[in-house]
Please model this.
Amino acid sequence: MSQLSTQTENPESRGHPLIKIRELTRSYRTETVSVDALRGIDLEINQGEFVAIMGSSGSGKSTLMNILGCLDRQTQGDYSLEGNYVGQLSRDQLAKLRNQTIGFVFQNFHLLPRTSALENVELPLLYSSEKPGWKELHHRAREALDIVGLADRGKHTPSELSGGQQQRVAIARALVTRPSILLADEPTGNLDSRTSLEIIGLFQQLNRDGLTILMVTHEPKIARFAGRVILMRDGLIRSDRKIPAGDAREALENWQDEADDHDDPLADIEHAAKSDQESKN
Model:
């Protein structure tokens, strides 16, 4: 399996801020309704981090991810990505930044159904300002499939792949532009428990190879494999803590198909967030 090549693979770059957010707000207003989805967010994500964002529906986590992914703009506040002040960029500049800097992974894979895995992975390069030749395009796509362990599945269409394999193709598509950061929105939401561990194990390997990963999940047992967990509620960050990350490969080796009746490894985070809020009140 190939090792990831990214824009941030220099070990000396680890620990430097990749994302900086100050007093970020996002409001949606109509003639009759006003919704403040984000109410003043301060956040820094350093290069080389693996961060999980948690929160219930309506907490603001999806709105935050859309802004971080340059898919939406903030109402107020500052957002800097690799030194670029995103709010000052034109639509074309935003598109270029998305293509070159950010890799996206979604819950529903979003693969073209009648297109091979290799061709699905090649798609972001077709829209890249790099304009690689066909030989380089095929090489990069095959390299990305090799990274996710699907070098022998390049000619298969999505219908010929399992759910876990389809998500691996989606991850390869996100990696093919060699991004600085991977944004994953509920990447295990449509997968069974064992396959979820396989995907998270892949994320951990990518992170060890130097890729910054920001993942939204509602599952505490998935978030525990990140090294930092952010808990959101009512458009605010209620808790932001580093935790000892679990080892997904070890969990997979010891995996058993049984009810999740053991202690919640993130219970202390939610308890701390509640205590912090009560002390403020």
